């Protein structure tokens, strides 16, 4: 027996000159989730889902934490810069140099920065507390609460300095709160003012 079969490829009844039939690739099924109309994506619905009857913005209690923290950080920054300026001025007048001057600068920055941070933080706590109480008592959050909270904060903060300074503090709080409300109205953030304009 010859060994020619070892050098020939194995065949199953097909001649060597016949080309194999092309294999049909099965088409992968298309997902039904990819067949959509892009017009459905351009909807004017809100991005977040709110419970029915709930406000579409955070209340005063939720905003109080960020307001207090921001006030403390702003007070520390402003007081630190002012303390650095006063420290440079004081050490220059005293002709202090080296480690002594650096120590005095750090003392000025830390002392004035902490004092300003405490002041603004206290004002923010008072304002947020009055705002939350007024919202709970009146059942709504509007510009009236803002003005009353600002005025009450000024009155309470200066209540221990005498009647005259107490009145000045209340006036300053009222002015700042009123300016903030006017700025919000000019930006169109007042829902009551927008409703009032619709009736006009």
From TrEMBL:
<keyword id="KW-1133">Transmembrane helix</keyword>
<feature type="transmembrane region" description="Helical">
    <location>
        <begin position="166"/>
        <end position="185"/>
    </location>
</feature>
<dbReference type="GO" id="GO:0030150">
    <property type="term" value="P:protein import into mitochondrial matrix"/>
</dbReference>
<dbReference type="GO" id="GO:0005744">
    <property type="term" value="C:TIM23 mitochondrial import inner membrane translocase complex"/>
</dbReference>
<dbReference type="GO" id="GO:0008320">
    <property type="term" value="F:protein transmembrane transporter activity"/>
</dbReference>
<dbReference type="InterPro" id="IPR045238">
    <property type="entry name" value="Tim23-like"/>
</dbReference>
<keyword id="KW-0812">Transmembrane</keyword>
<protein>
    <submittedName>
        <fullName>Putative mitochondrial import inner membrane translocase subunit tim23</fullName>
    </submittedName>
</protein>
<feature type="region of interest" description="Disordered">
    <location>
        <begin position="1"/>
        <end position="30"/>
    </location>
</feature>
<dbReference type="Pfam" id="PF02466">
    <property type="entry name" value="Tim17"/>
</dbReference>
<keyword id="KW-0472">Membrane</keyword>
């Amino acid at each position: 027996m010859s060994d020619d079969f070892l050098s020939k490829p194995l065949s199953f009844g097909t001649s060597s000159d016949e080309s194999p039939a092309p294999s049909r690739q099965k088409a992968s099924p298309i997902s039904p989730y990819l067949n959509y109309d892009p017009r459905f994506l351009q909807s004017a619905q809100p991005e977040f889902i709110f419970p029915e009857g709930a406000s579409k913005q955070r209340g005063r209690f939720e905003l109080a934490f960020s307001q207090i923290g921001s006030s403390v950080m702003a007070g520390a920054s402003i007081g630190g810069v002012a303390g650095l300026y006063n420290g440079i001025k004081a050490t220059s007048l005293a002709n202090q140099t080296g480690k002594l001057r650096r120590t005095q600068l750090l003392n000025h920055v830390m002392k004035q920065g902490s004092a300003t941070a405490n002041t603004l933080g206290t004002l923010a706590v008072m304002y947020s507390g009055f705002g939350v109480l007024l919202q709970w008592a009146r059942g709504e959050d509007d510009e009236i609460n803002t003005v009353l909270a600002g005025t009450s904060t000024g009155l309470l903060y200066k209540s221990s300095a005498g009647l005259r300074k107490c009145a000045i503090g209340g006036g300053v709080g009222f002015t700042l709160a009123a300016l903030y409300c006017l700025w919000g109205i000019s930006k169109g953030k007042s829902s009551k003012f927008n409703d009032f304009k619709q009736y006009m």
